[in-house]
Amino acid sequence: MAKYIVDIDGTICTEFFLENGTKDYAKALPLTDRIRHINYLFAQGHEIHYWTARGTVTGIDHKKMTLEQLQSWG
Predict the structure, then answer these.
(1) Which of 1, 13, 32, 66 is the most buried (most CB within 10 A)?
(2) 47 and 3 in contact (C-beta within 8 Å)?
């Protein structure tokens, strides 16, 4: 089986930019067709790892919100 590293923003959800160019991760919307495909790969026994750069510029910890988003998006 294969191991997949999947970026979150712009891959399994939309990106929402504020006027100053920063991202508002809370407004990201799921891309359900892509999520469905990732879930299919997982169901086939492949290893899935999500990767994100959220907070690397601002230093803000987005872990709780990101986990909640991933859970709510399925």
Answers:
(1) 13
(2) yes
